[in-house]
Amino acid sequence: MAALKTVLLVVFLVDALALIGLVLHQMSEHASMGGAFGSGMSSTVFGRDVTKDPKKLATGILGGVFLGIGFLLAVL
Questions:
Q1: How many CB atoms within 10 Å of residue 66?
Q2: Using an 8 Å Cβ cutoff, are 62 and 4 in contact?
Q3: CA 60 to CA 32: how far, in whole Å?
Q4: Is it the case that residue 53 has pLDDT exceeding 90?
Q5: How many whole angstroms separate alpha carbon 33 and alpha carbon 52?
Q6: Do residues 76 and 4 lie in contact, with contact meaning Cβ atoms separated by under 8 Å?
Q7: Cα 16 to Cα 30, 33, 57, 61, 76, distances in angstroms
Q8: How many separate domains does the chain show?
Q9: Taking CA 45 as the corner, what is the angle to CA 39 and CA 51, rounded to the nearest 5 degrees?
């Protein structure tokens, strides 16, 4: 049981670091002054097309894994 908890904790920490890096990378794309006013959302009339943004999908998956492992660690 202790080995499983250790493995889950390591995966949890790696996932947290990957999530932080991915979010910071997304923020750096819109870090210019125009990004504050929505100029980064010019790919469609109604804003960015989120279906074609693989970083948003990866962020959602990493966030889900983070929450799932967090709940598992809380129970163990």
A1: 16
A2: no
A3: 24
A4: no
A5: 24
A6: yes
A7: 22, 29, 16, 12, 19
A8: 1
A9: 90
Query: Environment class of residue 15 by beta-carbon count within 10 Å: exposed (0-12), middle (13-18) or buried (19+)?
Result: buried
CA end-to-end span of the chain, whole Å?
9
Say which amino acid occupies 4.
Answer: L
Q: Does this model's pTM top 0.90?
A: no
Domain that holds residue 57: 2-75
Q: Which run of H or E residues covers position 1? A: none
Are 9 and 73 a contacting pair, CB within 8 Å?
A: yes
User: In a 3-state reduction of DSSP, which class is residue 43?
Assistant: coil
| pLDDT of amino acid 44 | 56
